[in-house]
Amino acid sequence: MKLLLQTTDPTAIAFAQALLQGEGIDSFVLDVHTSILEGGLGFIPRRLMVADRDWFLASAALRDNGVEVAR
């Protein structure tokens, strides 16, 4: 798994997942429960992960739609 996006904005994660789903790319969000426990203050970012083999296509899909990709 490779990191594709890291953000405290849950709408950015949802948007990115919808874009990836449209491209047929599976993704997985890490740190969802941890970020909820901190009370919605935005201290703990969520991470969107994809398989190593999908990273290039996934990052291209997000960049084409104006989403900043983690390096």
Defining traits:
71 residues, alpha+beta, Alpha-Beta Plaits, three-stranded antiparallel beta sheet, 41% helix, elongated
Describe the fold and architecture.
The structure is a single chain. The chain has a 3-stranded antiparallel beta sheet. The protein is 41% helix and 21% strand. It has a single domain (2-64), classed as 2-Layer Sandwich (Alpha-Beta Plaits), CATH 3.30.70. The model has no long low-confidence stretch (mean pLDDT 91). By secondary structure, the chain is of the alpha+beta class.
The CATH homologous superfamily is called UreE, C-terminal domain
Please state the oligomeric state of the protein chains shown: single chain
Helix content estimate: 40-55%
Which strand order do you get reading across the main beta sheet?
1-3-2
- Mean pLDDT, to the nearest integer, reads 91
The biggest sheet amounts to: 3 strands, antiparallel
Do you know the CATH architecture? 2-Layer Sandwich
> Structural class of the secondary structure composition?
alpha+beta
Domain DUF2007: 1-64
Protein name: DUF2007 domain-containing protein
